[in-house]
């Protein structure tokens, strides 16, 4: 891992102490090559340097050679219900520079499995740096009233 950037905090947890944060892994030219999950409440492993204390890596999702992505967004598995903080999905856009195709990857945020929940091929290229945001249908309806 060259760099880690763009920490993703889970917005529905904003009134309580968070346990997990997600970040993007960047290569040497600042392209996103993967997503990393940290557990901020786990005890640090012995032998870690001062800079490594404060969060243990709980999972890494690598995009693979020639694939670069966007910052992920967190989507709760069941929006509006009480559940574990990491019970949901990470969604990010990925561009494959070898095939010149773009896709949306859906990752299980709890397990960070190398096998995505879904990969949806997109009809057009999604540029690097593209951002997204998740809203529930209820939130959309509230905005429509404004």
From TrEMBL:
Enzyme class: oxidoreductase
InterPro entries (UniProt xref): Carotenoid_Oase
Any GO MF annotation of the entry: carotenoid dioxygenase activity
Alphabetical UniProt keywords: Dioxygenase, Iron, Metal-binding, Oxidoreductase
Domain of life (superkingdom): Eukaryota
Pfam families xrefs: RPE65
Entry GO CC: chloroplast stroma
Amino acids binding Fe cation: 131
GO terms under biological process: carotene catabolic process
EC numbers, comma separated: 1.14.99.n4
Catalytic activity: all-trans-zeaxanthin + 2 O2 = 4,9-dimethyldodeca-2,4,6,8,10-pentaenedial + 2 (3R)-hydroxy-beta-ionone
Record keyword Oxidoreductase present: yes
Cofactor(s) essential for the protein: Fe(2+)
Cofactor note: Binds 1 Fe(2+) ion per subunit.
Coiled-coil regions listed in the entry: none
Family: Belongs to the carotenoid oxygenase family.
Protein name (record): carotenoid 9,10-dioxygenase
